[in-house]
Specification:
Oligo-1,6-glucosidase, domain 2, 8-stranded parallel β-barrel, 30% helix, binds 1-deoxynojirimycin
């Protein structure tokens, strides 16, 4: 006779898979309260003295990253590549560049990172390959090869062959004749980066294998390179091509099938009205996108010391699906792209932060690091505190935590990719080699003798220790990544005010973009504790205070936990 207990057991047995998956998914939103750090393996730390950073070196430096407080590491491409575009020209999706180590070194690295609770995100570059990729090599040799259709060809030179270049001034065309193939091939980027024909189901199948492989190796997600170009149909014209947004959803679906908490972080420098196409109306596209629109207006606001354009850009990018998230950043491995500003606005940013011609690039951007652009520690801290308090997830570029500079004698964006400055010894402690292909900065105020990790670790007031406290502060405020937010009027055109609500918590953050102190008049009378005191390493204790009329110092930043 079947008794009651039997039914109860069956009931729970049936629910078991649900509990399992619920547990598995419990951290699905990890990216909302995380801090992401980006680096290039070859510029971080060289373990074997050959002058090139490697996975063993990066593994040795994981405790440094852990102590800084980061949650996830985004690695620039490290696969086999001729390295003509910093690794964004991939020759083999499955093989690590031999200079960076072996597959074993990579697995050791993944294992150690996992032990420290650091998630690894890798770049996924599927818009194009290197022209050295075997697919392209086969494709040019034989028009009947199955690989021919992996790329995009035209027998005639398209009328718009010299339009739509991503690197104007350096790149001359988007369709180039290939003598061996006897046809023109399409390339959004440099001519050694032929675009894949991503509308070809065979290419999509290859890319699923690539994603599956890296997820199986333990990566927590991908920074998807050049998304609008992956999904374009190049035969519909380079200026206004047809875009296949459904491809984004298919990629998301695939990676989540393989790993339920896998993240897709997209590089799509698009106008606000296009955001939903990438996030998906129901948040079923990318979980995160870099907020290039806010980034450019942020620099405009730094330049003018007024917040109005920044607030407008925040409002314009506010309406995103519930589980979607912005990734905010100050600088990255590319130029500071100002292409979404008007000509007048861009000129103002150029005047302030990149006045010399050799600081500017691609007719739209600045190839400098943050510290030399802002050139004042108070202002750099304000900028970082502001970026960390924007609605979204902060992304830091390696070296910015110590205020590294740039080397404008290097070509194009290489200026901001010099080796990490670990100490004041030879080669900044990055490598023991006698010669570095990628030289360290050894002159002027940003030389490794002045700016390095070791020296800053020993100084409680250094930018490094300050940044580490900022990361801690940000992580103690989940309302920023998870809550609702509104801009509040501060009574000063120079001061940005944002108020967050999350459950029973609320937070008010204020940033003064100007060098002069400002009077603040809030419309509501808040009460709160100043929690940003922790950043200053000061012993001063502040109790709860009334917040309505007060002043904020030049480049001041104040975070208040509000009493409800
Ligand atoms: C965007 C990357 O950020 C950039 O560094 C690269 O040159 C292009 N995509 C081409 O992959």
């Amino acid at each position: 006779m079947i008794n009651r207990n039997y039914f109860i057991s069956i009931f729970f047995l049936l629910l078991f898979p649900y509990f399992l998956s619920a547990q598995d998914n419990s951290n699905e939103y990890w990216y909302k309260n995380s801090v992401i750090y980006n680096l290039d393996v070859d510029s971080f730390y060289d373990s074997d003295g050959d002058g090139i950073g490697d996975f063993k070196g990066l593994t040795e430096k994981l405790p440094y990253l852990k102590s800084l407080g980061i949650d996830a590491l985004w690695l620039a491409p490290f696969q086999k590549s001729p390295l003509k575009d910093n690794g964004y020209d991939i020759e083999d999706y499955y093989m690590i560049h031999p200079d960076y180590g072996t597959g074993g070194d990579l697995v050791e690295f993944m294992y150690e990172a996992n032990k420290l609770g650091i998630r690894i995100i890798t770049d996924l570059v599927i818009n194009h390959t290197s022209d050295q990729h075997i697919w392209f090599q086969e494709a040019v040799k034989d028009e009947n090869s199955i690989y021919r259709d992996y790329y995009v060809w035209s027998k005639e030179r398209p009328d718009d062959y010299n339009e739509g270049m991503v690197f104007p001034g350096v790149q001359e065309q988007t369709w180039t004749f290939h003598p061996e193939a006897g046809e023109y091939y399409y390339h959004r980027f440099y001519e050694f980066q032929p675009d894949l024909n991503n509308l070809n189901p065979a290419v999509q199948e290859e890319m699923r294998k690539v994603m599956g492989y890296w997820l199986w190796m333990g990566v927590a997600g991908f920074r998807l390179d050049a998304v609008p170009f992956i999904i374009e149909d190049p035969y519909t014209g380079v200026e206004d091509p047809e875009l296949h947004y459904d491809m984004v959803k298919q990629i998301r679906q695939f990676i989540q099938w393989r790993r339920s908490d896998a993240l897709l972080l997209g590089e799509a420098n698009v106008m606000p009205d296009e955001n939903k196409n990438y996030f998906g109306d129901d948040g079923d596209g990318m979980q995160m996108l870099f907020n290039f629109f806010v980034n450019q207006h942020l620099f405009y606001s730094f330049a003018t010391e007024e917040v109005s354009r920044l607030t407008a850009s925040l409002e314009a990018t506010k309406d995103i699906p519930e589980n979607s998230q912005w990734a905010h950043f100050l600088r990255n491995h590319d130029e500071l792209d100002l292409g979404r500003l008007s000509d007048e606005q861009r000129a103002v940013v150029f005047d302030n932060f990149g006045p010399d011609e050799d600081m500017q690039i691609y007719e739209r951007g600045i190839r400098r690091r943050l510290a030399p652009m802002l050139d004042d520690t108070r202002r750099i801290k304000m900028a970082y505190s502001l970026m960390f308090s924007l609605p979204g997830t902060p992304v830091i570029r390696y070296g910015d935590e110590i205020g590294m500079g740039d080397d404008l004698s290097l070509p194009e964006r290489e200026a901001v990719r010099t080796p990490m400055q670990w100490s004041a010894v030879k080669n900044a402690g990055f490598s023991t080699a006698d010669h570095l292909e990628n030289p360290v900065i050894d002159k002027g105020q940003y030389s490794y003798r002045q700016v390095n990790v070791l020296q800053q670790q020993q100084d409680p007031n250094s930018l490094l220790n300050w940044t580490s406290r900022l990361i801690k502060l940000r992580k103690s405020c989940p309302e920023i990544g998870m809550g609702d937010w509104e801009l509040i009027s501060t009574g000063s055109p120079h001061v940005l005010g944002i108020k967050y609500e999350f459950g029973s918590r609320s937070l008010l953050v204020l940033h003064n973009l100007s060098a002069a102190s400002q009077d603040i008049v809030l419309q509501d009378n808040f009460q709160g504790y100043r929690i940003s005191n922790s950043l200053e390493n000061s012993k001063e204790k502040t109790g709860i205070r009334e917040l309505q009329e007060f002043s904020i110092k030049g480049y001041g930043y104040e975070w208040y936990q509000l009493e409800n």
